[in-house]
Write a structure and sequence with these properties.
It is built from 11 helices and 10 strands. The mean pLDDT is about 95. With about 290 residues, it is of the alpha+beta class. It has 2 domains: about 90 residues, Phosphorylase Kinase, domain 1; about 190 residues, Alpha-Beta Complex (Aminoglycoside 3'-phosphotransferase, Chain: A, domain 2). A hairpin with a 6-residue loop joins strand 4 and strand 5.
Length: about 290
């Protein structure tokens, strides 16, 4: 939804809502985002097919809110047709690598504790509840086949022979971990630094953007944490109270490395990222 249209729709739908300033964010993949007075966040799905998904996300978050100690969006404004919804802005800085490095040991420990408790609560959500909220189930074999096809056709022609060899060896290793015997649970699906906010004043973690929620491998939610180092991810795993799984962090490492390949694919498919960023991450992760 374009900026002017979204502003008009908010005024029409919520005539008692007033503001003096706004910011329109366009870098999101699935949603346009409008921030009013740095206090309210409105999200509008870019595709018509995602309208039901936004309403379902709001329903799931209402179920999760009393069960988690971190801050998550509370959609207090929902349009009648499901085309947009808004929540009060959650405070904090994105927990990217630079922000994480500046945290004290105490803040890092508190962050790990809160993330572990959050993931435990999310992963223990009954699948029946998730399905009732429209959460879809991943098909890991098909997802892997699609990745292999896209990497082979789009990415490998741009790379050197030794890089191609490294990627094919990795894809073979990854294939062994996508079998039907893997544990599954409700997952956030994109728990990376840009979706983890650290509110230093309240010493609290806030989590945003549940667009990629699904029923899948819980190890997915530990993958993005590896951007802040093996030690931090291990600390979260150690405090996690979900089902025991000795290979959880091993699979998380594979998924973390997979992100670099996905980034290159997405860039070549026209998503708002660059091939160069994905390639740089690939070089760093695969050490080629």
């Amino acid at each position: 939804m374009e900026e002017a249209l979204l502003l008009r729709r908010i005024r029409e739908e919520f005539p008692n809502l007033t503001w003096t300033s706004h910011r329109y964010l366009t870098h999101g993949w699935d949603h346009a985002v409008l921030i009013l007075d740095e206090a309210l966040v409105f999200r509008a799905p870019r595709a018509q097919a995602n309208r039901d998904a936004l309403a379902n996300e709001a329903r799931l978050l209402r179920h999760l809110r009393p069960r988690v100690d971190v801050g998550i969006p509370d959609y207090v404004y929902e349009s009648a047709d499901g085309s947009f919804a808004g929540y009060r802005l959650l405070a904090g800085r994105e927990l990217d690598a630079a922000t994480f490095k500046r945290l004290s040991d105490t803040a890092r420990e508190r962050t790990a504790e809160q993330l572990a408790a959050f993931l435990t609560a999310v992963h223990e959500t009954p699948k029946s509840v998730a399905r009732d909220c429209g959460v879809s189930e991943q098909d890991p074999r098909k997802d892997h086949e699609d990745l292999v096809r896209d990497v082979e056709t789009l990415v490998l022609p741009r790379l050197a022979s030794h890089e191609i060899e490294a990627i094919r060896a990795f894809l073979t290793e990854l294939a062994a971990e996508v079998g039907p015997t893997r544990p599954t649970a409700l997952v956030h699906g994109d728990l990376a630094g840009e979706h983890i906010l650290w509110d230093a004043d309240r010493r609290q973690v806030n989590i945003i953007d549940f667009s990629d929620r699904s029923i899948g491998d819980p190890a997915l939610d530990f993958a993005g944490l590896l951007a802040n180092g093996q030690q931090f991810a291990q600390r979260v795993v150690d405090q996690y109270r979900g089902p025991k799984d000795e290979r959880r962090l091993w699979r998380a490492r594979l998924y973390f490395r997979r992100m670099a390949l996905e980034a290159m694919v997405y860039a070549l498919q026209g998503y708002p990222c660059t091939f160069e960023e994905g390639y740089a991450e690939f070089r760093a992760q695969f050490r080629v």
